[in-house]
Design brief:
single chain, mainly beta, 20 strands, 47% strand, elongated
Length: 269
């Protein structure tokens, strides 16, 4: 089991508790918190003698017991935004599980907001005994953000519970907002100017390069003569031009010059 805190710098924002990944089950939870108190959060997670231990704020130490079943359990997925600003149309939700024990069920709720806003809508419920899954349609769901909550309910005597194998959500870009794959190159010199008549700009190339590289995996507004884009920066990397003369047009040596390549996905404003 791997566990780590999710702070304010995470692409999807800060969350209470820990994110964790179970290597043996290949299960991933982006939101791990105590169910006893909404304000309590999981402070730490570790393995001990084959068990997963959880330290809960103001409550104590808990361990995972896979031999006992509770009446209800749930797992919230990570937030999907597909790394671009365009809205997505969601039209189908599907879940697969092992043969469903009698009296148990699996429900998938979805939200178009951040999970911590606790605004959920039921997408589907699978409750037919011995079934292997379920599929349902959703309508009028267009959003850039999307997350699901998988809820498992055991049978009445809590002696058997569903075993969820996978889930999927089908989504497509809306026709109203076109998405663009953008590639832009930035030359950074100690002294540069837009043209012969423009004011000379003096800057520290290393400092500017670091600031541009920090834009990776963030949203930016890209202003260009013919359009303005809301774009997600997928990658920032040093770029070596094929023509060395390109580096010398500003009168600077290669040591004081950088060329960066930015790969973005965005929509026109």
């Amino acid at each position: 089991v791997l566990g780590w805190s999710v702070g304010s710098s995470a692409p999807t924002g800060a969350r209470t508790g820990l994110a964790w990944y179970h290597l043996g089950r290949q299960a991933f939870a982006f939101h791990l918190a105590s169910s006893l108190e909404t304000s309590a959060q999981v402070l730490d997670i570790c393995n001990w003698k084959g068990r997963v231990l959880f330290s809960v704020e103001g409550d104590g130490l808990y361990y995972e017991d896979v031999s006992k079943y509770v009446s209800d359990a749930w797992l919230i997925s990570s937030v999907a935004d597909w790394n671009n600003a365009g809205l997505k149309v969601s039209d189908r939700i599907e879940v697969a599980h092992k043969a469903l024990p009698t009296g148990s069920s699996v429900t998938i709720d979805y939200t178009k907001k951040h999970p911590e806003e606790n605004s959920w809508t039921t997408g589907l419920t699978s409750s037919t005994a011995l079934s292997l899954g379920a599929t349902d349609k959703v309508s009028n769901v267009s959003s850039r953000l999307f997350a699901v909550k998988l809820k498992s309910a055991s049978n009445e005597d809590a002696s058997d519970a569903p075993e969820i194998q996978s889930f999927s959500v089908r989504q497509n870009p809306t026709l109203q907002e076109k998405e663009y794959v953008l590639t832009r190159f930035i030359r950074i010199l100690a002294e540069d100017q837009k043209d012969d008549y423009a004011e000379v700009i003096r800057q520290d190339p290393d400092e500017v390069r670091d600031r541009v590289r920090d834009l990776g995996y963030t949203w930016v507004t890209l202003y260009e003569p013919d359009a303005t884009y809301t774009a997600f920066v997928q990658n920032v990397a040093d770029y070596e031009p094929m023509d060395p003369v390109y580096r010398q047009t500003g009168g600077e040596s290669a040591r004081n010059t950088y060329v960066l390549r930015l790969d973005l996905i965005g929509t026109k404003g």
